[in-house]
Each structure stands twice: as C-alpha cells, then as structure tokens.
Design brief:
Elements (H helix, E strand, L loop, with lengths): L5 H21 L7 H17 L5 H34 L5
Length: about 90
C-alpha cells in the first residue's frame, strides 16, 4: 500500500470512490466474475493514461509498482482470509 500523505489522498479519494461505485454498479448479478474484467480494464486504462511516455525506466517502474500491489494485497487482505478459512475448516496435514 502506498502510504502517501493525507493531502494527496484527499485529492483523489472522492474520484476513486465514485469509480468504485460505478464498477460495482456494472457487475452483473448473474455473473459476478464480470467484476474481474471490469477491474482489469479500469486499472489497465488508468495505467496507460497516466504513463507519460514509453521509456524503459518508466515501464520497469510501473511493473514494479504492480508487483508491489500484488504483494501488499496478499499480505494485507488475502493472508487474513486464508487464516480465517484455516480456522474454519482446519489446516492441511503437513
């Protein structure tokens, strides 16, 4: 998670919440997996629209940011879910 200053957060949070609401409103009840395509499209579009130019260092930096997002999402969100499920269903017999 990028721990940016509160002033910077406030400048973009309202737009993030609005975009999140829009994405959630487009998810089809009959196909919750449509969320995945919407999220992929949205994040890819944001990245492509904010990269000022094609330069190796910038592409490498964005790739690193995406990897950090994966790692932090797993650490902060998925690990808690996994622990909850282990407690609920039992662990694997190692």
């Amino acid at each position: 998670m990028p721990y940016i200053d509160r002033g910077s957060r406030q400048k973009i949070d309202e737009e993030i919440y609005a975009l999140s609401e829009k994405i959630n409103s487009l998810v089809r009840a009959s196909d919750e997996t449509s969320y995945l395509g919407l999220l992929n499209y949205t994040l890819t579009s944001i990245i492509l629209q904010t990269i000022p130019r094609k330069k190796y260092w910038l592409i490498a930096g964005v790739t690193g940011v995406l990897q950090n997002i994966i790692t932090e999402f797993y650490r902060r969100y998925v690990e808690n879910y996994e622990e909850e499920k282990i407690n609920q269903n039992g662990d694997l017999p190692w």
